Amino acid sequence: MQGFLTKEQIGILREAHYSCRLRKSADRIKAILLLNDGFSYEKVAQILMLDSITIRRYEKQFESVGVDGLIECRYVGRHRTLSKMQEMGFVTHLRNHTYQTVKEIVMYAQKHYHVSYSVEGMTHLLHRVGFVYKKTKQVPGKVNLEKQEIFKKEYSLLKQSKKKEDRIYFVDASHPQHNNMPFYGWIFKGVTKTIKANTGRKRLNLNGALNLEAMDTIILSEETIDAHSMMRLIMRLEEKQLQGDIYLILDNASYNHSYELQLFLEDHLRTHLKYLPPYSPNLNIIERLWKFFHIKHRDKYFEKFKEFEKEALNFFKTIHRYDAELKTLLTDSFQTISV
C-alpha cells in the first residue's frame, strides 16, 4: 500500500500534525504517513509504541473518511461549528468566566449556541483561540489600583528628576527556610524523585536593597527584621554610596513607619523613604529577586544552618553571574494586577 497518498494529501497531513496538540490525534496522522512510506503494520506499531491492531484500525478509519475526514475528526476541524460572530462572543465569555473543566465549557456551548463538541474537539478549539490550562493566581483583595497608578507616575517622575549620582533602591525582607520544599518538575513516569529535608524550621531573616541601574544589591542577615535592621541597611547603603541622595522604595510594615526610624533619618538627610501603596508586592521589584533566589536553591540541601546562611549571602555577592537571566526579570516594567 506504499505511496497511496498524493503530494497534496501528505502536505495537508504534515501541517495538521505540526499543529496537533493531542497525542492520540497525532499518532493517527503519523500512522498513515508511515504506512504511506512503506513501513509494515508491525514496524509502525513499534515506532509509535502501539500495537498492530490499533494501526490497522487507523488505516481502516482513513480508508473510510479519507484525509479530510481524518483531519476534521482528529484535528482542530476544517468546518467551524461556531460562526465567526458566535466565536467572538464565546471568547469574550471565557475571558470573563473561568471554568475548571472542558466538559463545563462543552455544556455551555451546547446550552447557549446549540452546538455539540466532544471534549477533544473543544480542547482543540480552546487552544486555537488562545486559551491554556493553568493555575489561577492570588492577589491581595484590598489592592487599590488607583493608588498603584499614582505610585507609577510618581516613580517615573522621580527617575526623570533625580541627579546622576542619586540612587533608587527597592527594599524588602525575605525569610528563606532552612529546608527544601517539594516542587513540580519533569520526572520519568513511575519514578519517584526524592530531595533531602531537614527536621527543623529555622529561617534566615534577609533584609535587602536592590538598585536596578547598576544591578547592585546589599543583603544583610539579621536576627530579626525591625527598625534597627533598617537602620543598619541604610548605613551600609550610605557607606557604599558616598555622594548623592538615596531613595528607598519600601512597603508599609510597621517598623518602616516607626518613630525610631524617623528619628534616625533626621541625622541621615541623604536618605528618603518612598512608601508603596498598601497591598502592592507587585510594585516592589526586589520581590522578583527573592523569588529567583528561591528557585535557584529549591533543591539544594545544607545540613547546617550556617552553611545555608553562607551560601545564601554568597549568592547575592556573586549575583552578576546571573546577569543574562536577570536582565529581563529585574526591570521596572511593573506587573499589573487585575481584579
How would you describe this protein?
The protein has 339 residues and is of the alpha/beta class. It folds into three domains: 68 residues; 45 residues; 185 residues, Nucleotidyltransferase, domain 5. It has 13 helices and five strands. It has a five-stranded mixed sheet with strand order 3-2-1-4-5, with helices on both faces. Helix 1 runs antiparallel to helix 2, helix 2 runs antiparallel to helix 3 and helix 2 crosses helix 4. The N and C termini lie far apart (59 Å). About 2% of the residues have low confidence.
Write the layout of secondary structure elements.
Elements: H1 7-19, H2 23-36, H3 41-48, H4 52-74, H5 84-96, H6 102-113, H7 119-128, H8 145-161, E1 167-174, E2 206-211, E3 216-221, H9 227-240, E4 246-250, H10 259-265, E5 271-275, H11 286-296, H12 305-317, H13 323-329
Parallel strand pairs: 1-4, 4-5
Antiparallel strand pairs: 1-2, 2-3
Helix pairs in contact: 1-2, 2-3, 2-4, 3-4
